[in-house]
Amino acid sequence: MEMGISGKRFYKTFFAAVMICAVYVLWVYPLKPFKIPALKIIDSFYSISDKMRHLDPTAKEVVIVSIDDESFKKINIRWPWSRSTFADMIEKIHSGKPSVICLDFVFIGESISKSDDLRLAEAIKNSGNIIIGTYFGDEGRRVPLQDMIAQNAKEIGFSDKSEDVDGMIRRMRLLFTSTSGNVIGYSVAIDIAAYLKGISAKEMVSRAPLLEYNTTYINYFGNADNFTIIPVWKILNGETDPHALRGKMVFVGTTSSLMHDIHPTPIGMMPGVILTANETLTLSTGKFLHCAGRLLNFAIILIFVFVSIVSWASLPVMRGIVVNLIGIVIFPTLGFLLFLRGIIIDPFGGAFLIASISIILYGKKYIILALENIEMRRQSVTDGLTGMYNYRYFELQIKRELETAAAEKKPLSLVIYDIDHFKKLNDTYGHEFGNAVLIATAKIIKNNTRKHDTATRYGGDEFCVLMPEVDSKSAKKCVERVLGSIKLMALNSTDGKNAIAGITITMSAGIASLENCSPEKPADFIMAADSALYMSKEAGRGKVSVFIEK
After folding, report:
1. pLDDT bucket at 3, cuts 50 / 70 / 90
2. pTM > 0.90: yes or no
């Protein structure tokens, strides 16, 4: 009799576990508030495994030729560089006899000097192993390269990055297809790996475990510290050992934060060129991370959930608590062990369901709070030091305001401020004083902006203010008030024995307004304001200049 009751309870418990797991796997897990915690746990797997493993020998086959801040200073040529400069660089890299050269740049249109285009095209042709990056625009069309350059490249692949729902890059997109399903472009990483393997890009894609949107997980081999990095100035000045490039995969790209090609990854912020190197190594080595399907996730979670329900139904309270706590610890541990074997499961689901079941069956009233805590908070849109909007928010806002201004034919102005000699202030009085300058300056800028203006810390000691429905004349008056207030501001150094009172600073500014320029995209508008800022710097600093399109 007792055996019959026990058997009936077993089936009820198993059925309840199946239903709970089915609801979670099919409907709950795909929701953003539940998916993001799972992704963050996977990020910790990436980070831990990155610290645990020794440098993979394959990573030694990669050389990053870095266009960094040091190179900008050493070469002393204003960006963007002429195509003849790129030709010089290619010729010197090619002399080292690398196996392949990837140029992470987009050469659009003709340059001012046609001879520069011819020289670059000739350098690419003579190398014979150069793969160039491009990207797909908002309309799903690949941005075309200059004809001569495109014709002489070995391959042209896109370098678009694939972000997850939280903005993190864990996957790479391998190809783009048309609405009819035809392939219209392969990634740079696919083209490089296929070239090195001597196979077609299509076959290279067939070897990868594809996920949605033709993506696959990146198996990160490391960040900047794990690869051989050569500043481009050493290449151009002939200060590089030719043997350092022999037979290597050479990736050329910008690593300076000023170029805004830095992306969030599970192992830290990473320049786009190093991301491309990691994507290529994932493909060329075949060390893929395979995503467990719904069925495998369901089966693993079901085992843990079933044990949890049985433990609460048959064990004393304290033993049930211990069993379930052990289950909560073991589940992500299992996820990490599988990750090391190249399999990614949902490492959050089992632990979440065990905890939820425990709370419900233990009779606590905190389940609502627990579910609320799981919900994803919106990513902060403000800079922690100054309280201004951050760059990510500014990117969204400038695009929106440009579209609105164009549609409604209303004025729009963009101001870029830059603190004069900020590095010298930092070096002289210390970073705490530098932070005080940033905070005080930001306060003055915010006090001189309207409610619907967008005041942003653009980066470092630069600030931006986006001013809808304001023409250049009005914007200039506002900027002049700000610069005047900045000049009147006196700060005290907090550097102990060498305390100095009444330190004054100045700020330069540049203004771009739609009445004076016709930007095709936000980057053009920013570049116009930046050009005006450069004019102010050249004119002696502490001034404001207005960009006028020629």
Report:
1. very low
2. no
